[in-house]
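Supplementary notes for students who missed Thursday's class. We covered one full example, reproduced here. Read the sequence, then the structure, then the short commentary at the end.
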Amino acid sequence: MPRTLDGQITMEKTPSYFVTREAPRRIRSMSPNTKLIVVVRNPVTRAISDYAQMLSKTPGLPSFHALAFRHGLGPVDTAWSAVRIGLYAQHLDNWLRYFPLSHFLFVSGERLVSDPAGEVGRVQDFLGLKRVVTDKHFYFNATKGFPCLKKAQVSDHPRCLGKSKGRPHPHVPEAVVQRLQAFYRPFNRKFYQMTGQDFGWD
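Structure (token representation):
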């Protein structure tokens, strides 16, 4: 991490930290006062999105349900990373061995799309910053299906998520979606209890 002066905040973003077993111990040894922001979304949607990204890089992959379930439609395969990442309660359990819950802010991925200013406002509050970024800084890009950030007056070009974001998801049969929802339900409820937030995925 770069040196940080008084009055500055240094931020670093790596999605894999939350699911990497050794990360909390290493981060705590580097800086026990670190504040942690975790963006989460419905784990079923997240798994399908993860699969869509894999498919864009490796077109010949087996179907989503062939990877999500062992032996066809047998038990859910938690060894598959697209499924395992969505077990948020298990990952948080590991982090809470090293950091108190007060060091975490859990951002709803769904609300980040539906109300970006509200969620970014929560981030600013959590970091002790003045609420500078507000709803006037966002507009909804219908093509991408995501909000984009308006640039400062010096530039007319808005800042949108990259082309890897907002890609269409492959069709997944409703029976597969329902089985995954049932699988995640107890983990989601535990996560709601642990965080004190109901993300409304059930």
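Commentary. Residues 117 and 123 are 10 Å apart (CA to CA). The mean pLDDT is 90. If anything here is unclear, bring it to office hours.
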